[in-house]
Amino acid sequence: MNMKVTIAGVELKNPVMTASGTFGSGAEYAQLTDLNKLGAVVTKGVANVPWPGNATPRIAETYGGMLNAIGLQNPGIDLFVKRDLPFLRQFDTKVIVNVCGHTTEEYLEVVERLAGEPADLLEINISCPNVKEGGIAFGQDPKAVEAITREVKRVAKQPIIMKLSPNVTDITVMAKAAEAGGADAISLINTLTGMKIDIHKRSFALANKTGGLSGPAIKPIAVRMVYQASHAVQIPVIGMGGIMTWEDACEFMLAGATAVSVGTANFVNPNAAVEIAEGLEQYAKELGISEIRELIGAVKE
């Protein structure tokens, strides 16, 4: 049974990876699960300087998921390169570094720093607010998506994955913009903007008022967007959004995803991604499929 998939010339041993922000940079989880059994580890977002993140409380459980307003707290690229990357390179898995920033220049600074580092792919988080354009996220304006993709591609030494925001009217427009800018792949969906109010305190559950909704509640939206995006572009699509089981992962692959990212499930079960990879393999064997790639986009029209 061949579980390998290829994204932008990078071969993954299986199509299952972790979703950025839900797995740290692997050190905590390495004590609880076998990183060698994953197709890739996607790191928490890394910025050009340390970010403190938002005020607390910044996580709230919701029906069928969770809200987070962490604010991309991270130690910055210097510590990441010194501590986290060498740790991850001990394992037989691909390393995808998630990059965040407030301006195009901040993104480019991180991407340039990573040029000589042993990262296999870069995932560019364009759900960050673009401070030079009044705070609207880069990923909510197709012209901004194409422009930042082109700039990152110009300096990147690794293939780049543009991580798309679902908080848009038409995901295909954003997917095409990323492709036009030279993206090697796209990943989606990032979290949906949500809110929770504590009726007893009559106050917001998150200090930030709004946060990103993730978990099973968003999966049908994510599957639909992955299907639409994969039909709009020629580059590989990495699907995510509420994947808890191998059956969920299978849905995304049938919809057109080359690979999948497991996020919120990691908080419930640290071994979730490994179990999903094993479940997919068993499913393919039972169907008599010799290559997992045969599932990609194989939904009957």
Explain this structure.
A hairpin with a 2-residue loop joins β5 and β6. The longest helix has 16 residues, at 272-287. The chain has an eight-stranded parallel beta sheet. The chain has a single domain (5-53, 71-192, 213-295), classed as TIM Barrel, CATH 3.20.20. The mean pLDDT is 96. The protein contains eight helices and 16 strands. By secondary structure, the protein is α/β, with parallel strands linked by helices. It is globular and about 50 Å long.
Would you summarize the structure shown here?
This protein is α/β, with parallel strands linked by helices. The chain has helices at 77-88, 104-113, 142-155, 171-180, 219-232, 246-255, 265-268, 272-287; strands at 5-7, 10-12, 16-18, 40-42, 59-62, 65-68, 94-99, 121-125, 160-163, 185-188, 192-195, 197-198, 203-204, 210-214, 237-240, 259-262.
Write the layout of secondary structure elements.
Elements: E1 5-7, E2 10-12, E3 16-18, E4 40-42, E5 59-62, E6 65-68, H1 77-88, E7 94-99, H2 104-113, E8 121-125, H3 142-155, E9 160-163, H4 171-180, E10 185-188, E11 192-195, E12 197-198, E13 203-204, E14 210-214, H5 219-232, E15 237-240, H6 246-255, E16 259-262, H7 265-268, H8 272-287
Parallel strand pairs: 3-16, 4-7, 7-8, 8-9, 9-10, 10-15, 15-16
Antiparallel strand pairs: 1-2, 5-6, 6-14, 11-14, 12-13
